[in-house]
Specification:
Blueprint: H1 16-48, H2 54-66, H3 83-97, H4 104-128, H5 135-166, H6 171-179, H7 181-188, H8 192-198
Helix pairs in contact: 1-2, 1-3, 1-5, 1-6, 2-4, 3-4, 4-5
Length: about 200
């Protein structure tokens, strides 16, 4: 069966523990990509938005947002999956394969999607304005969005912790956490992964 998503899909008859393990591994990779992408977005906001060519600068930032946003909203058959697409895709598999229930994970992802859509709508309006637009106000909108998305990703990871504890005997998940603890700690807080593994 061919998936419309650009990521690996699992066989229907895959055992639940294996599905949980694989989905967690893909989610953890997606989270690392998400934090990296947000760091890039923050750099783009200050490096690109200078006011020399306002419309072009906005387009550049908008492209960065689209790499985070759900592409399926505008291009349902696109093979370019975004970060939120990937997290949603594997979170759904995780929830179906787990004995645990969690309403916060899909809720947080939806809140991120809505926040990005609001700023994308404002960006479309800003592009149409001929007169010089206050750069500080525009930059402030993007910085506020960046801060919100970082908080939401941290909340997402916090919600994921119960599933990670459920999988504490899974060597593949543990290895991924340990090997990438510095990356995660840089985004989540000092010794976050160590405390999670000891808890």
């Amino acid at each position: 069966m061919r998936s419309l998503n650009p990521w690996p899909i699992f066989p229907v008859n895959l055992e639940l523990p294996v599905a949980r393990s694989l989905s967690l591994q893909f989610i953890l990779q997606g989270l690392m990509d998400a934090f990296d992408r947000l760091q890039g977005l923050y750099h783009t906001i200050f490096a690109q938005l200078q006011g020399a060519n306002f419309q072009e600068e906005l387009s550049c930032i908008s492209k960065d947002l689209e790499k985070i946003l759900l592409f399926s909203l505008e291009h349902p058959f696109s093979q370019k999956g975004s970060i939120l697409d990937k997290l949603c895709f594997y979170s759904e598999i995780l929830l179906q394969a787990s004995h645990l229930s969690n309403d916060e994970i899909p809720q947080v992802l939806d809140e991120m999607r809505k926040a990005i859509l609001v700023v994308k709508s404002k960006t479309a309006i800003w592009k149409k304005i001929k007169a010089p637009f206050p750069l500080d106000a525009v930059r402030g909108e993007f910085v506020a969005l960046h801060s919100l998305l970082v908080v939401k990703l941290r909340t997402f990871f916090s919600s994921l912790c119960t599933f990670l504890k459920e999988a504490r005997s899974d060597e593949n998940v543990l290895v991924q956490l340990i090997e990438n603890k510095e990356k995660f700690n840089a985004s989540l807080g000092a010794k976050y992964i160590e405390k999670l593994l000891m808890g």
